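# step 3/5: fold
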Amino acid sequence: MTNQERMAKVAWLSRYRTIERQIKRLKEDKEHWQDKATNIVPTPVHFKYYDHNKPADQPTIANMTIEDIRRNNMLPVVVHGSSGGLGIDDCIAEISEIQCQIQEKIKNQIKAKCEIEKAIEDVPDEKLSLLLEYKYIDGLRLEEIACEMKYAYRTVKRLHNKGLELINVVPQCPLEMC
């Protein structure tokens, strides 16, 4: 097996884990937009304060509710709102788009996993098949696989290469077979 063929097989087998990382990033991005949506402050409503000592304000103060009088007696507060920036609708649209991308990635991940599992099942040696499953489905590193299988790292590396040689890249796996 040439180095180019080996790299192509590794890339083909690594698709499942790659898509999993992409989904994780999309979910983090979605969470970021959800945080943004919950932190949007509406454009501030400015409250006009009335002075008890001004005769022109006396009729207005007389007609105020208890709540209005309470607000009128409070110190002015500076409120920073979103003026012309991102609105809740923008955030919802972005979240919706990301959700669609996540669903598409999940479909691709299911298909890739099916194809990879089929190719690994076709490896005649059970030990090699288990090693490839640990590596490309479970995402374990060779060091972790060595501990799990109770082999030396060099042995696992050699077995991994042997397993790669026995892998036949399967172009497609219909979802009905999964």
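# step 4/5: annotate
The chain is about 65% helix and 0% strand.
# step 5/5: archive (pending)
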